[in-house]
Amino acid sequence: MKTALCTENVSFSYGGEPVLRNISLELTENTFLVLIGPNGGGKSTFLKLILGLLPLQSGTINVFGKPVHAAENIGYVPQDAGRIKDFPVNVLDTVMMGFYSPRVKLLKRKEIESAALNALELFGMAEYKNARLNELSTGQLQRTLLARAVAKNPALLAMDEPLSGVDPTGQKLVLETVKKRLRNTTVIFISHDLSVIPGNADAVGCINRTLTYHPAGEVTEQLLANAYGQINAMTLVSHSCRCEAPHD
Amino acid sequence: MIEILKYSFMQNALLSCFFTVIICAVAGTLAVVNRNVFITGGVAHASYGGIGFALWAGFSPLFGALGVAALAGLLLGLIRQKYADKADTLVSVLWAAGMATGILLTDLTPGYSADYLSYLFGSILLVSLREIVILGIFAAALLLLAVRYYRILLIVSADQEYAVTLGIPVKRLNLALLVLLCISVVLLMRVAGLVMVMALLSIPAAIAETRTKQLSRMMLLSGLTASAAVFGGLLLATYLDLTPGAVIVAFLAVMYLVNTIANR
Q1: Which residues on B lie below 8 Å from A74 (Cβ)?
Q2: CA of A74 to nearest chain B CA: how many angstroms apart?
Q3: Which of residues 189-248 of A touch B (CB under 8 A)?
Q4: Using a CB-CB distance cutoff of 8 angstroms, which residues of chain B are in contact with residue A76?
Q5: Distance (Å, rounded) from C-alpha A45 to C-alpha A51?
Q6: Does B68 map to a domain?
Q7: What domain range is B41 assigned to?
Q8: Given CB atoms, is B115 within the 8 Å cutoff of chain A?
Q9: Interchain pair A78, B168: CB under 8 A
Q10: How much is the mean pLDDT over chain A?
Q11: To the nearest whole number, what is the mean pLDDT of chain B?
């Protein structure tokens, strides 16, 4: 198996305040990694460093053997849609954005449109293809951004709390669709919902300044205590996350 | 009314209006969706420093203004990339410092020059053939760029983070867009003057933004709105013997008001 992502001693601070300390991680191809951790623990910062959205301050990051800025075929679902929500762009054009690449020869417009429509259908958004993004609900907007990220079958798919705003039935459907659609894709999935882990994750990383990394079946109280604090971890274990058994 | 179209100054003005509409459609739309409208005001006023310097040094005010505007665009773009929250202050400083420099250098220039007044309030009826050629070349280049690189412009304007993940050189593109916007501001100052040029770039696009779901259609609608105001304003101003720039902006302001009320 090839290495999809390799980070070595990655540290990052905002204005002198350390957020990440010496994060080293090696992910092989096709791994589904769920990243958990408390708010402000550094999960999103780590993801943004991998995607080249923040400048690397120390350490190294390679994506499929290349430095971050030379990495190709990456899909990204942000935590917050940002200004695209209010931009004059419809759903279909948004999904078609995912096919653009400055390094690879583009498909013909008709082929891109057909693939984008196909992705929208998978996420139950085809009927909204002509809608402007500010006419959609939060859940529908998230599905659109998921369709954009997944449509071109990326080699690396980075998702930052992609299910926020999607109702529970929709969440299950979205996760199933993502898994069904992807082929040979390494996934990094940030989530506070631990029910995502069973049945989906191959590995779990907990980021709270530093990283602890575990195979999915070994999500323990200690891991959760590191992520969320002792008391919260006990609650989480007893109420929602028994990773040994599939979650209903 | 038809008689006046036979005069070469009117033909020049109409040709300038045509190129102005193209610049409003492309540069205005990109300025509005990228929230760069305030910058256009700052750059327009800053470029007055270049006009004053050119008059004082004895070369074309147009080139003085273009040079200062391009520099101001680069400076603003670089500062904004490092310190996004300081951009507002810098625009205000450039705005005031440019005006002050322009006024001081005009004071120091012997004799009287009508040129600086034409940049302050616009003088579309006095546009020279050389200026029309420059305006035409720039408008054509802008239109070609918009058509050729439409998809990149769309992605960078709509979602900069996503554009980075696709490998698009977002920082360099933002700088280039800002410089193009600054050049647009200077070239349109001949139509509406530096005091009113913001309206030309922002109002047609702002109206179009409320009525479309696609960037390309926003550009088209912005161009149509600008056409109505620019050609209508010019003809009415000529007929009533009023300042064309002011009539054009008044047209735009009324259109904006009507559109806002209609959207409620």
Answers
A1: 165-166
A2: 7
A3: none
A4: 161-162, 165
A5: 10
A6: yes
A7: 2-196
A8: no
A9: no
A10: 83
A11: 91
Which residue type, as a one-letter code, is found at position A56? L
Looking up tokens 């050389």, which residue turns up?
B130
Find the CB nearest A88 among B151, B161, B209.
Answer: B209
Is the ipTM higher than 0.90? The answer is no
Q: Tell me, what CATH number does B7's domain have?
A: 1.10.3470.10
Number of domains in chain B: 1
**Nearest of B13, B30, B8 to residue B235 by alpha carbon:** B13
SS3 A160: strand
B251 within a domain of the structure (yes/no): no
Tens of pLDDT, residues B152-164: 999 999 999 999 9
CB B119 within 8 A of CB B63: no
Q: How far apart are the first and last CA of chain B?
A: 38
At residue A230, does pLDDT exceed 60? no
Query: What is the rounded CA–CA span in Å between residue B235 and residue B17?
Result: 11
> Could you tell me if B29 and B48 are in contact, meaning their C-beta atoms sit under 8 angstroms apart?
no
Tell me the pLDDT tens digit for each residue of A176-214: 888 877 778 899 999 887 877 877 888 898 898 888 888
The count of CB pairs under 8 A between chains A and B is 75
- Asked if the structure places residue B118 within a domain, the reply is yes
What pTM, to 2 d.p., does this model score? 0.87
> Is B201 inside a domain boundary?
no
CB contact under 8 A, B165 and A76: yes
For residue A19, pLDDT beyond 80: yes
Contacts of B165 in chain A (CB under 8 A): 51-53, 74-76, 158
Q: Is B154's CB within 8 Å of A94's CB?
A: no
Residue of B nearest to A87 (CA): B158
Task: Give me B153's structure tokens.
Answer: 């412009």
Q: Does A102 touch chain B (CB under 8 A)?
A: yes
Q: Concatenated DSSP letters for B150-203?
A: HHHHHHHHH-HHHHHHTT--HHHHHHHHHHHHHHHHHHHHHHH-TTTHHHHHHH
User: Which residues in chain A have their CB less than 8 angstroms from residue B156's CB?
Assistant: none
Q: What is the pLDDT of residues B35-68, one digit of tens each?
A: 999 888 899 899 999 999 998 998 888 899 999 9
Structure tokens at A182: 């992807």
